[in-house]
UniProtKB/TrEMBL annotation:
Molecular function per GO: methenyltetrahydrofolate cyclohydrolase activity; methylenetetrahydrofolate dehydrogenase (NADP+) activity
Biological processes per GO annotation: L-histidine biosynthetic process; methionine biosynthetic process; purine nucleotide biosynthetic process; tetrahydrofolate interconversion
Catalytic activity: (6R)-5,10-methylene-5,6,7,8-tetrahydrofolate + NADP(+) = (6R)-5,10-methenyltetrahydrofolate + NADPH; (6R)-5,10-methenyltetrahydrofolate + H2O = (6R)-10-formyltetrahydrofolate + H(+)
Ranges for domain Tetrahydrofolate dehydrogenase/cyclohydrolase catalytic: 8-123
Originating organism: Tsukamurella paurometabola (strain ATCC 8368 / DSM 20162 / CCUG 35730 / CIP 100753 / JCM 10117 / KCTC 9821 / NBRC 16120 / NCIMB 702349 / NCTC 13040) (Corynebacterium paurometabolum)
EC number: 1.5.1.5, 3.5.4.9
Keywords recorded for this protein, A-Z: Amino-acid biosynthesis, Histidine biosynthesis, Hydrolase, Methionine biosynthesis, Multifunctional enzyme, NADP, One-carbon metabolism, Oxidoreductase, Purine biosynthesis
GO cellular component: cytosol
Pathway: One-carbon metabolism; tetrahydrofolate interconversion
Alphabetized Pfam families for the sequence: THF_DHG_CYH (PF00763), THF_DHG_CYH_C (PF02882)
Binding annotation for NADP(+): 168-170
Name of the molecule in the record: Bifunctional protein FolD
Domain of life: Bacteria
Length: 295
């Protein structure tokens, strides 16, 4: 269809969101004397995870959010990790907790995630947050899907009634993405490694969210003309899960890789950290009260 689809510039929206977070962090500090604080936990010595955490911490610092880093050795077991997370959950000086995924196969990651107090789950990984995303109510959005919803809203993409295909069903990305889209009244199909005829599902989609981790799995010719394409995949060499050049010949809007979904993930994390800090203050003080935060 279009040879020039609109680029959904997550990098630009993330800059604006981070500036807003910085303003809110400054206001929170001047009103309470406390800096919004994000605790980060890294288990093991995976290089990519260490890089992600450092990047998140740098952005947090730039937005006026204090970070507290906890490094745990690869030999850490579930009990020790749960104890660490629980201590941070109980610490009144910590407003948000990020437990970097993956934590190592010998650890029960679900149990560790669920040790995060729901009101500090600014990465949106606990069962409580998932319930909020699915059923409604108070809770945080998983950061990547939450960031994608922010991006769709910013560009005025109509989600209600849209035929939407989410490719991938991971607990941090595909499943919460499907839940948030369903809450926005999309008609949602979730595809995964056992899906038959992936191309046929994608060909019927007004909105495609690729969240797989396989370079250019989604071929340009599968895209319905005029569809909106969100590529959450990030593979070595800055390659997404979608054949960008091919999809750009048919899509009406598409996210670049990099500069699309990635920056919005971090911006959502920081914005939700400020939400958590504000909600931690007794509403009777007049500063802020709890609010429903799941998108
Ligand atoms: P994951 O846990 O490995 O999940 C991958 C999903 O893709 C699984 O549900 C899997 O199906 C499905 N899948 C695998 N091969 C498939 C195929 N041939 N056809 C259809 N579905 C297939 O990955 P993840 O953590 O969700 O991450 C997915 C991608 O997003 C990765 O590239 C990752 O780097 C990226 N990511 C980006 C951000 C960001 O901020 N931009 C954040 C997180 C992740 P089964 O369930 O059947 O195995």
């Amino acid at each position: 269809m279009s040879t020039n689809p609109l680029l959904l510039r997550g990098d630009l929206l993330a800059d604006a969101t981070n500036s807003d977070s910085a303003r809110r962090a400054t206001r929170f500090h001047s009103e309470t004397g406390v800096r919004p604080t994000l605790a980060t936990i890294l288990v093991g010595d995976d290089l990519a995870s260490a890089t992600y955490v450092r990047m998140k911490e740098r952005r947090a610092t730039r937005a006026g959010i204090r970070t507290r880093h906890v490094d745990l050795p690869a030999s850490t077991d579930t009990t020790r990790l749960v104890d660490t997370v629980a201590a941070l959950s109980d610490d009144p000086d910590v407003h948000g907790i990020l437990l970097q995924h993956p934590v190592g196969e010998h650890i029960d990651e679900r149990t560790a995630f669920d040790a995060i107090a729901p009101q500090k789950d600014v990465d949106g990984v606990t069962s409580a947050s998932f319930a909020a995303m699915t059923l409604g109510g108070t809770g945080f959005a998983s950061c990547t899907p939450g960031g994608i919803i922010r991006l769709l809203d910013h560009y005025g993409v109509t989600v209600r009634g849209a035929n939407t295909v989410v490719i991938g069903r991971s607990p941090i990305l595909g499943k919460p993405m499907a839940a948030l889209l369903l809450r926005r009244d999309a008609t949602v199909t979730v595809c995964h490694s056992r899906t038959r005829n992936l191309a046929d599902h994608i060909a019927a989609a007004d909105l495609v969210v690729a969240a797989v981790g396989q370079p250019e799995l989604v071929r340009g010719e599968w895209i319905k003309p005029g569809a909106v394409v969100i590529d959450a995949g990030y593979n070595p060499g800055n390659v997404g899960d979608v054949d960008f050049a091919g999809a750009s010949r048919r899509a009406s809007m598409i996210t670049p890789v990099p500069g699309g979904v990635g920056p919005m993930t971090i911006a959502t994390l920081l914005s939700q950290t400020i939400d958590a800090a504000e909600a931690s203050v007794d509403s009777s003080s007049g500063v802020a009260g709890p609010r429903p935060t799941a998108e």
